[in-house]
């Protein structure tokens, strides 16, 4: 650990001691990289801006991740900026690189701050990184604000719902908790875990099997009961009662060449026959 700390401090010291680049030299290095793919030029350009990486990384140290990791991710963003920088534009490299460095660090924080993946939309990212700052600022401006008032104002400022603000606030207020973490002082099999107290609303296995058996039994009863119907009664019952899109009396009558009233009579008669057949078949099968 001491060796790693020494390496990290040596790296930071070297970065802070790297010379600043004048505008003309910075432009020349960028041109050499863009035109000739001169890696030495890209390295020198990046090395001169590592203090910028360290400065931006320090702004995110309160998220609890190792500073070395934040600097490393910021360095990745710096190299990406160097690879994409257009020296023909009238802008300093530091101005362009700042966005890439910050984006790389923020993406690393979002991926590693919690084992639970949070929202990745632009508004959710803005909420994650500005919630604490906005809440602190609102609290300073008015001590009488309630939590609901603060959530409402933050939601308006960021462009999210108050529910999203409340959810993000709860996530930022405490660390992750494993479902397998013990919550009692027992030993071995007597140790209780959070998982033991989760309630599953799904049916029990025996209930699921029982329902499946009942469905199969009812399907068998219906199949046997349908055997008492005539061919025309079967057509009407299937079209009117067993089809996802029930056919109207008028349409069915036109298809069968009879009136809709006659279809109604046949349907009622068929239902009565099925009812009797089912009542007789149930105890026999059971």
Q: From the 3D coordinates, which CATH architecture of the largest domain would you assign?
A: Up-down Bundle
Radius of gyration: 36 Å
Level-1 CATH class name of the largest domain: Mainly Alpha
The profile of the biggest β sheet is: none
| Class by SSE composition | mainly alpha
- How far do the termini sit from each other? 74 Å
Helix proportion = 55-70%
Mean pLDDT: 79
Helix and strand string, N-terminal first?
Answer: HHHHHHHHHHHHH
Q: What is the name of the CATH topology of the largest domain? A: Four Helix Bundle (Hemerythrin (Met), subunit A)
> Tally the helices: what do you get?
13
In terms of DSSP E residues, the strand content is: under 5%
**Parts with pLDDT < 50 across at least 5 consecutive residues:** none
Domain count, please report it: 3
Global morphology? elongated
Quaternary organisation: single chain
Number of strands: 0
Question: Which secondary structure elements does this structure contain, and how are they paired or packed?
Answer:
Elements: H1 2-17, H2 23-36, H3 39-47, H4 50-58, H5 67-84, H6 93-112, H7 122-141, H8 147-158, H9 162-172, H10 205-225, H11 231-240, H12 249-256, H13 260-285
Helix pairs in contact: 2-3, 3-5, 4-5, 4-6, 5-6, 7-8, 7-9, 8-9, 10-13, 11-13, 12-13
